[in-house]
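User: Can you write out an input/output pair for a complex, sequences first and structure second?

Assistant: Here is one pair. Inputs:
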Amino acid sequence: MSLLTTPELAAPQGTRTAPPVDGRRSRRKTTWTAVAFVAPLVIYLVLFYAYPLVQNVVMSLHRFDRFSFVNGGAPFVGFDIYAEVVAQSRFWVVVRQTVIFTTASIVLQYAIGLALAAFFHRSRFRLSATLRGLYLIPWLLPVIVSGTTWQWMMSPDTGVLNAFLGIFGADPVWWLNADNALLSVTIANIWLGVPFNLVILYSGLQNIPADLYEAAALDGAGPWQSFWRITVPLLRPVTLIALLLGLVYTLKVVDIIWIMTSGTGSSQTLATWSYGMAFGKGTSAVIRYSEASAVGTILLLAALVFGFVYIAVQRKQED
Amino acid sequence: MNRSWWTIAVAVLLTAIMLFPVYWMVNVSLTRRESIRRGELLPFDFTTEHYVVVLREQLPYLGTSLLVGLGTVLVTLLVAAPASFALAKLAVPGRRLLNFMLIVAQMVPAVVMSLGFYSIYSRIGLLNTVPGLILADSTIAVPFAVMLVTAFMTGIPRELMQAAQLDGASAWRTFRSVVLPMSRNSMITAALFAFLWAWSDFLFASTLDREGGSLRPITMGIYNYIGAQNQEWGPMMATAVVASIPAAALLVVAQKYIAAGVTAGAVKD
């Protein structure tokens, strides 16, 4: 908005009648200034977002091997690679595991985050600045740090988790073997995501007026009732945002899984499968860029679908 | 009285459970090699030898990480600051579309980006280089930084800018001498997150900088231990502790900025 659009200055008064051409030229100048300021970002988005994305799709439509990846000349095969990927029985196994990993992660991250937020909100022991900082730690640490730590804690013979279970007489669990891998990486991923949910939900709780609870208490509502009748409905917008963002972010998780299990056994998801086919060391003899890109594109589409739902929800909330 | 003690006990217990993995990492990093497998709750067999190993073997990686982190901050701010000013205060054609693209950009799976980058970099020779890694890492932070700083700049009173313009300042002067100084806090927040994400990045480092030798970041230094035949847990955990220092330092020094970033919404990668 330029100065000339403000009524006092734009309205012609007596002798100082500004010719309309002037106004238009000035506004056009502002637009060009705006374009100049925003140009680096636009160029950046084209070069470092659009171009790699297009490149990824192009790779999934050509049959690349190690040689043609370096020297070019991979034949165009249309959607053949997608058809081959989807036709594998493995594909649906991986999709199922991705759904389990994602759903279990976001539901439990949310539930634990909400329980903690509600506890600290209701008790006299408020989530002080120091404590809030401590709870952010899992979220701020490099994932390679948390991943290796969890891997060590889940070591079958010497891990602290089995030592703890042993106190209750439980047999040692082979956390990272093929069958249990999905459970183990999900536990670690929940731990990573609780801080984000806790912080968002805690600020959501703080925005609920306290007199609502007081009024409900006067009407004889117990803590359980006021939780379901006041907290849950009023927290709905924050809940939707937390769950949808969690969904989009969890779908694309590679690092925690790859670091703990290299995507072996039941812990393979679409994201780690794609990563492993292109970059996995020692997990596959042949490097398959085209299949990796095809799986990556499928993952991208899934993430975008939920991403658009998120944007729509957010727009609706703002109106 | 009774009830209050009870809640404090529960609060402490919950916090302890949540932070136990972090404690366990520190504990192992201070226990002598021979005793690590006993898994004692305190480092009774105390040693700092693992940290000596870290200083001997991991310094180049730490240096690279520092360089990559600072480079990412620079790229992020250079791209984000002017664009945020335009989106907040100037008539940008297609503003809604651009805002939309920024949200969508944060949803793109990093593995898809790394496949695209890998193919491009292998052709133009940016694989296993620090600038290549900086550019890739900056994609994690740029959309977030633009949205955060734009939101902040929108709140700057228009009168302040108009005063500068009446004094004959150009848009550039207004940006540099009025808007930028006033947006310091949001720029610091964006810079902190850009640094932290670049420092923590595993995905781009393990794909675009796999064979970079000592020009690899500290996340790769830790990852090397995982692949080894005989996993050395002591040095590995000590390196992990050292790699956590920036996160811990930021938390102590700049918690108010971090809290601002989290509540700004679309964070976390």
